[in-house]
Automatic annotation (TrEMBL):
Pfam families: WbqC (PF08889). This is WbqC-like protein family protein. InterPro entries: WbqC. It comes from the Bacteria. It comes from Ekhidna lutea.
């Protein structure tokens, strides 16, 4: 069984899911020290005016493992993220089909960042009609096989990595295709076709 080790992302990008689709087992790294400014707690939606970055506020101590990171529900992020979701995709072709699945997870007010990201990942794989085995790391390993930890990150453009090759699909806003948004964009716009588009988006020499 092919296995990848990677950190859990919040509503991961098309690059992230195009990569995960190549593996039968997804092992989520939860024992690393939680770094700032990564996709673990941020996602990109396409709105009428711009690409909007949504960030989950979190609480953790320096050096804390990812598994201990808690979501800061004292801030109004849930309302903001649902509002951005509705504004961006309320008129999308598949909004009526899948919006409640997203909303139900947000409404649960999950306290653990890991658990929230896992809930969305399981829902996304259900939409994609894929059933990879999802596991957690038992401890931190410095150099595991198929190590993709921190490879997909917002600090460098996806074009620097040979993982994702944009396969355009109709989006709601603008005349120019915007690549590598959150998987939400693809699901809302393409529904059942999302899996095939992801497979077509995987970089091949």
């Amino acid at each position: 069984m092919s296995k990848i080790i990677i950190e859990p992302h919040y509503l991961g990008s098309l690059e992230y899911y195009a990569l995960l689709m190549q593996f039968e087992e997804v092992c989520l790294e939860i024992n690393d020290s939680f770094p700032k400014q990564t996709y673990r707690n941020r996602a990109h939606f396409l709105t009428a005016n711009k690409v909007q970055t949504l960030v989950i506020p979190v609480r953790f101590e320096n050096g804390s493992p990812t598994k201990d990171v808690q979501i800061d529900h004292s801030q109004r992020w849930l309302k903001d993220h649902w509002g951005a979701f509705y504004s961006a995709y309320g008129k999308a072709p598949f909004f009526e089909y899948f919006s409640e699945d997203f909303k139900n997870i947000w409404d649960n007010k999950i306290s653990s960042l890991i658990e929230l990201n896992l809930a969305f990942m399981e829902m996304v794989f259900k939409v994609l009609q894929r059933k990879p085995t999802i596991t957690y790391t038992a401890g931190y390993e410095a150099r595991p096989h198929n190590d993709f930890r921190n490879v997909v990150n917002p600090k460098k453009p996806f074009s620097d990595r040979k993982i994702y090759s944009p396969y355009p699909y109709p989006q709601l806003f603008g005349d120019t295709f915007v690549p590598n948004l959150s998987i939400v964009d693809l699901i809302m716009c393409e529904g059942p076709n999302a899996a095939q588009i992801l497979m077509n988006s995987f970089y091949r020499d």
